[in-house]
Design brief:
166 residues, alpha/beta, Double Stranded RNA Binding Domain, 2 domains, 4-stranded mixed β-sheet, two-stranded parallel ribbon, 5 helices, 33% helix, 16% strand, globular
Length: 166
């Protein structure tokens, strides 16, 4: 059974989904690929409540010292990319190319496509907690964010990201 609930954030309503194992999704009202609410039971769960507490801390401008239990669903490659995303420190950024280099190194290959990494980053269904907003283009530009670049910029500003250091 999957459950759906909602969180009112300073940047708009966020839809949260979870199953018995953990948080499965988080969508902004401005984002793409919002879930069909009819496929979920409207209710809260301990992990949804824990996620709301995490979001309260995050939107207060602090770095939460815990991660809610997550249950992301994706291909093995997507899961590998999302695991790397979770290691990007609060307030820091990296590039798609840097992530591609890390994956290539983990697999003992010379090169990995930054575009393939971008595709996996773009399919992340648990943004903010799996911080895809911290990934920027190799040229230093903000690129690709399913909920819009304005929201990506707002999240980086909230974190006082190194992106804005010149």
């Amino acid at each position: 059974m999957e459950y759906i609930n909602f969180y009112d954030s300073p940047i708009g309503q966020i839809t949260l989904t979870a199953d018995e194992k953990g948080l499965t999704g988080m969508w902004f009202e401005t984002g793409k690929h919002c879930p069909d609410e009819s496929c979920y039971m409207k209710n809260t769960t301990p992990v949804i409540e824990e996620t709301k507490r995490w979001l309260d801390i995050y939107f207060s401008g602090e770095n939460p010292d815990f991660i809610p239990k997550l249950n992301p669903k994706g291909t093995n490659f997507q899961l590998e990319v999302w695991e790397i995303l979770q290691k990007i420190p609060y307030g820091k950024t990296t590039t798609y190319n840097n992530i591609a280099h890390k994956i290539a190194k983990q697999h003992g290959i010379k090169k990995m496509s930054a575009q393939a990494v971008g595709g996996a980053v773009g399919h992340n269904k648990i943004p903010i907690i799996i911080p895809c907003h911290r990934v920027i283009g190799s040229n230093g530009n903000l690129t690709g964010y399913a909920a819009g670049l304005q929201l990506k910029e707002a999240l980086l500003k909230l974190e006082k990201s190194d992106y804005f250091e010149t």
